[in-house]
Each structure stands twice: as structure tokens, then as C-alpha cells.
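wait is this the right file?? whatever heres the structure
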């Protein structure tokens, strides 16, 4: 899609959000490996000590907060009333779906992890 859309919306584009999601998400390969990756990192932090453990868990908590902000941004993009932005979304349906699945599943994962059995 070209970048000179005739609108002056100040909402971020899905492509902008996609970049943000890439930086936000954990590089933990497939979802089935997350549990193990989480336990590995937590285990390493625990060996390092209490400070490292707290830091790791704080990072996970921040990950949830940032993930929810990303979801808010996606929400803002989707509910736009601008006809040009809406038109653009038609072609970005799959990207939109991928972003939602990616962010929601990782946010939920951390929410469950932080609620249960970390202590
Ligand atoms: Zn627009």
C-alpha cells in the first residue's frame, strides 16, 4: 500500500503497531515453548538471587501493561471513522488478526503465569 493516503489521522497505522509488537513480544518461538522458556528464565533468575527474580517478574508484569496498550492502539485503528483508514484496513485483515492473536495470547500467558505458582 502506498504511504500518501489523503487523510491526516494521527492514529498509528497497523504497520507501525506491527513494528511495536515485534519489539514487544518475547522471542520464545512457538507458543508451546513459552512455558518452558518462562520457567528457564525464572529458574536462571532465581539462581542469581532475589533481585534478579524480582526484576524478571517485574518485566513480565510490564509486558502485560505494554501488551494491553498495544491492544488499545489496535482498537483505536479498528474503530476509526475515517474512510481512508477504513479502506486500508480492508487489505490488512490478516495482519490485524495476526497482531491480535499474538498480543492477546502473550498477554494472557503472562497474566496466568504471574497469577499462579511463581512464588
Ligand atoms: Zn485516516
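ok assuming it is, sequence goes like this
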Amino acid at each position: 500500500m502506498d504511504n500518501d493516503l489523503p487523510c491526516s489521522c494521527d492514529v498509528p497505522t497497523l504497520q507501525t503497531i506491527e513494528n511495536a509488537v515485534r519489539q514487544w513480544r518475547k522471542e520464545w518461538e512457538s507458543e508451546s515453548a513459552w512455558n518452558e522458556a518462562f520457567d528457564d528464565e525464572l529458574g536462571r533468575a532465581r539462581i542469581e538471587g532475589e533481585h534478579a527474580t524480582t526484576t524478571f517478574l517485574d518485566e513480565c508484569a510490564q509486558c502485560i501493561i505494554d501488551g494491553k496498550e498495544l491492544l488499545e492502539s489496535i482498537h483505536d485503528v479498528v474503530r476509526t471513522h475515517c474512510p481512508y483508514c477504513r479502506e486500508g484496513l480492508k487489505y490488512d485483515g490478516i495482519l490485524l488478526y495476526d497482531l491480535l492473536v499474538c498480543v492477546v495470547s502473550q498477554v494472557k500467558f503472562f497474566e496466568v503465569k504471574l497469577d499462579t505458582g511463581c512464588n
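The CA atoms of residues 1 and 56 lie 39 Å apart. so i think its the right one actually
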